[in-house]
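Sorry to interrupt, but I need a hand with the structure work. It will help me judge whether the discrete encoding reads sensibly. Write everything out right here, beneath this request:
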Amino acid sequence: MGLETTKPLSTLHEHTSYDVNDFAVPGGREEAWRFTPLRRLRGLHNGTAEAGGRVAVEVDAAPELRVETVGRDDERVGKAYVPADRVSAQAYTSFEKATVLTVPRETVASKPTVVTLTGEGGVAYGHTVVVVEPMAEAVLVLDHKGSATYADNVEFVVGEGASLKVVSLQDWADDAVHVSHHHAQLAKDAVFRSFVVTLGGDLVRLSPSVAYTAPGGDAELIGLYFVDAGQHLEHRLLVDHTVPNCRSNVVYKGALQGEGAHAVWIGDVIIRAEAEGTDTYELNRNLVLTDGARADSVPNLEILTGEVAGAGHASASGRLDDEHLFYLQARGIPFEEARRLVIRGFFGQLIERIAVPEVRERVTAAVERELERELTK
């Protein structure tokens, strides 16, 4: 009997195409789809979700940026990212207009640019391209709200020596479904900072990915999610180190409460043979606050070279620490307030890293509302 071999992680991400027909309809047993409740995708995965709804796009841009609405034939659309799964390809095949934001060379944006995407019902598809030219700097907020069944792709193209900070808020209505791929392409010495906050929606599946085109790229992916009863919030990350001397750091934290609350976090990091000098780490933590909630956390690290500066990963899911609660209660703090303080501390260091003060305050308030929701049940 021969030895069984496990396929390398990289094979999961090597099939890409703009054509939806190049991807089989997922059945739920595939590695990429085994955690996702396909029946709740409302046909986004099998071609039955016909566009007929609307997600309105409004842009409050820094004055230095160029904002354009373009057609499918614009050469910047799809230049940095080729869809890697069927829903992503469906979104690429189905969108009609794309939003292109450009930060001109050596420009430092004077204020954050806010893109508000508001679901107005029905099925919709979208596409966004953000180009940060060499030596430029910008902060971008993607604010998702309203109700829709929505699939889209977002391309971040960060030029040589440029810096882009992105905050993506998924604050949908309770009945929304959102499947999205965020792809960042980093040139030499480019800096990319992503902060994802996922709170609303019936089902949200967000797939951030990072690719490097030259040495010196630096990516940091931070995420926060709070899952309520019946919600499915899924984050699937890929950082693909293909060139030497680049860095990545991933930190995602989530809390779950209520029957049927389900969080999924997949963190895939690949260090290719040619990516010597890579420095990478990924971390996921989940607080399971009530019975009936489930957290699936799968960190994957594939190293194909022995010449790395650092590489590691960690994952843990569990209840609130009884010792922490006891410590606070022993000092006269009631149980519910002690519980609230521990959860605030769990998220606090992440929230402090949000680049936009107004968004930071909004996220803090949203976490407080989530805690109040559980206390009033």
